[in-house]
Amino acid sequence: MIRPNKSSILPIIVFSQFCCTSLWFAGNGVMGGITESFSLEGNALGYLTSAVQLGFIFGTFVFALYTITDRYSPSKVFFGCAIISAIFNLFIVFEFNTTSSLLVFRFVTGVFLAGIYPVGMKIAADYFSKGLGKSLGFLVGALVLGTALPHLLRGLGWFPSWRSVIYATSGLAIFGGIIVLVLVPNGPYRKPASKFDFSVVYKVFKPSNFRSAAFGYFGHMWELYAFWAFLPVVLAAYQNYHGIIEFNISLVSFMVIAIGALGCVLSGYLSQKYTSKNVAAFALGISCVCCILSPFIFLSKFQILNFMFLVIWGMAVIADSPLFSALVAQNTEAEVKGTALTIVNSIGFAITIISIQILNTLELIIDAKYLFLILSIGPIFGLMALLKEKKS
């Protein structure tokens, strides 16, 4: 294995994370093409998005239960999962697909994404003890850009069909996995778990600081993926409501989601001065306000004002994520750090299933401008968890 300098490790992990997490919303970015090609129902968006989330939840639970990330080389786990998830992502292009097969393929893709996102954070934690919040800010920023990439690829119109976007994202994931395997050895702060221990799954929640970080993260996750998944839906409703002709929904969706990468990096730097907990609470507060104001912004005809509002929201909605992960990693023992990150991710993504399905149902019942109001529940809950810890 090639051994690069420590200073180059973070950029390598960040780039690989970006490549591999492009699989996450690969289906969302080309949902129109998939729906048309396979004659899917109108609510396919929510079900296919939830299939990935459910797969990720199952995968993270298995990874945590068997302490895979702490007992085996994280780089090898990352590589193997990148290859398998890329293959199952490719399966959705086949002509024989039905709704059921698409759900299965997206589910399995999600299962092996569990060996990419939290494992990438584990690798970073093995290399960076000080300034972990800043390091994870770059890493989660890569996740954001990877998530937004399919919207960009589709919005720019460079690819002849939606299938080309799927080919591109799978190719990127394979490349990202190879880079980690070849260039990223085990980190200096890695302490492999010596034995298989089921009890780790619940023991990590005993420290109050850990619980505070975990519950704050859960509140954040209630909002995050539902916002990302239904942003194109709300934008389409906005376009129809105001009769706007020239409006590239895919490109706007990309910009609003992608700007979150800047929010992650900025929050990482701010955490070094104002602490991770304070910056996370500030970002949650902004997200909460945006949820509440969203119906009023929807009614505004000023596109520039609305776009700036969404940019601020896009930064705030993800800015706290790396800080919660840093707090989780810092408030658990080194030997079970990977498992702690994985189990918290598993529960957090389980929560996204609930919020996504609620919005999926409400979309058929209420006006689109009110959809994001219910997402404010998450930031409120997260803020309560953080404030309770401050008082204790």
UniProtKB/TrEMBL annotation:
Protein name: MFS transporter
PROSITE patterns reported in the protein's UniProt record: MFS (PS50850)
Species annotation: Hyunsoonleella rubra
Positions of transmembrane segments: 7-25, 45-65, 77-96, 102-120, 132-153, 165-184, 247-270, 279-298, 304-328, 340-358, 370-387
Keywords: Membrane, Transmembrane, Transmembrane helix
Stretches assigned to the Major facilitator superfamily (MFS) profile domain: 1-392
InterPro entries membership: MFS, MFS_dom, MFS_trans_sf
Keyword Metal-binding attached: no
Pfam families xref list: MFS_1
Keyword match Transmembrane helix: yes
